[in-house]
Design a protein that fits this description.
about 400 residues; Rossmann fold; seven-stranded parallel β-sheet; 17 helices; Polysaccharide pyruvyl transferase WcaK-like protein; transferase; five-stranded parallel β-sheet; alpha/beta
């Protein structure tokens, strides 16, 4: 292999995406290979990745609004003449880098969870035409979303690495023989211990993460924010712990800082709540999370940072990935996840937190004994890649 192409990357102000790039390159440990990163937000990756990696940045071109290419593409689709014109323009620089000496890793593990990812289907067809080996890297897919079109695309991959057993079982049941089960690569992410902000007490601070995404999936309008408000007040009233509000995604359209700032404004005068700012990279955020007593989080890779550093964690989830990862670590998702769709009463989150707190010692002990081997399994992804005849 002369070239490595990491594609379907959304941008590093989603620090889960940043964590996947960093941990992927750590696992593969490649030398004398040109590494290209196909990204939707190049400037973010220049800010968070370029200082540590020599990456050839390739940006997906955007044709928005009434751009002629977008309008022409819409016309062709309506006439049933072509489904791919827009993709061929937006991905031209990416497709041009491919040849038979290129290994292509689809690193957006969630991308098959948000509608039909025909733009990725197109990339995969082009990679196959050019003789590239392709890997669907660290993925989760809702079993109910697997239709004939998606299955045809999944069969096209040289290798699929499912990051949790619910997805893996769905692949097996659909007859896929090119899949293996290994932990999310971000379990291997390095931890960087930055200076703690004033008020953050290592070992006696409870980490809090909430996202606009889970708020969009709530069953009752406003229930998520009200539940977090009640939880924070409960912790202030019943413990001596500090609370750290920790963002993990900071995109304009999906920004954890928006709900976290609302929470901070309510409780800032208590002296018990700290807001971590949005300028840290994923390793530094993992460093803050690693020094928490407990963690209540919505973003998958924030909770992975907690799990991997043996911090007892409650996941406020909405998708198969949260359930599957918890199931693989604990044997059951019960008591470790609270699906946001089932959040109907404002005291449910308090009850789930109380259960987590009561089991803190047992959970920490389980994670301490379980994680070394589990994290070790994530490195086996590199071995599977080498079995493709690529080194």
């Amino acid at each position: 292999m002369e070239n490595l192409l990491l594609y379907a990357h959304a941008g590093s102000r989603n620090h889960g995406c940043e964590a996947i790039v960093r941990s992927t390159l750590k696992i593969l440990n490649l030398n004398n290979v040109k590494i290209s990163l196909a990204t939707f937000r190049q400037q973010e990756d220049l800010s968070f990745l370029a200082t540590d990696f020599n990456l050839n940045m390739l940006e997906y071109k955007k044709y928005e609004g009434l751009h002629p290419i977008r309008l022409f593409d819409a016309g062709l689709r309506k006439l049933g003449l072509s489904q791919n014109m827009l993709f061929s323009f937006s991905q031209k620089a990416i497709i041009d880098t491919m040849d038979k000496n290129t290994l292509c890793l689809s690193i957006g593990g969630d991308n098959y969870c948000y509608g039909i990812p025909r733009w990725i289907y197109y990339t995969n067809r082009m990679a196959a035409q050019k003789g590239c080996k392709t890997v669907f890297w660290g993925c989760s897919v809702d079993p109910g979303a697997i239709n004939r079109e998606m299955l045809e695309d999944l069969k096209r991959y040289s290798l699929i690495i499912a990051r949790e057993s619910i997805t893996y079982q769905a692949f097996i049941e659909n007859g896929l023989t090119n899949s293996v089960l290994l932990p999310d690569p971000a379990f291997t992410l390095d931890t960087k211990l930055s200076k703690l902000p004033e008020g953050f007490i290592s070992g006696n601070t409870i980490g809090i993460n909430v996202s606009p995404l889970i708020m969009k999936n709530e069953s009752t309008d406003g229930i998520v924010l009200r539940s977090y408000i009640n939880l924070i007040q409960h912790i202030i009233d019943t413990t001596d712990s500090q609370l750290a509000l920790i963002p993990h995604v900071l995109w304009e359209h999906d920004n954890d800082m928006i709900p976290l700032c609302r929470l901070y404004d309510i409780f800032k005068d208590t002296g018990r709540v700290i807001l971590i700012d949005g300028n840290y990279n994923c390793m530094e955020l993992k460093g803050f999370i690693s020094r928490c007593k407990l963690f209540i989080g919505a973003r998958t890779h924030a909770t992975i940072a907690a799990y991997s550093t043996c911090v007892p964690t409650l996941v406020i989830g909405y998708s198969v990935k949260a359930r599957g990862i918890a199931k693989d670590i604990f044997g059951s998702e019960d008591r470790h996840t609270l699906p946001v769709q089932k959040l109907e009463q404002e005291n449910q989150l308090i009850h789930a937190y109380n259960s987590l707190s009561a089991q803190e010692s047992d959970i920490r002990q389980h994670l301490s004994s379980f994680m070394p081997e589990y994290i070790g399994k994530a490195y086996k992804a590199g071995e599977y890649v080498r079995k493709l005849g690529i080194s």
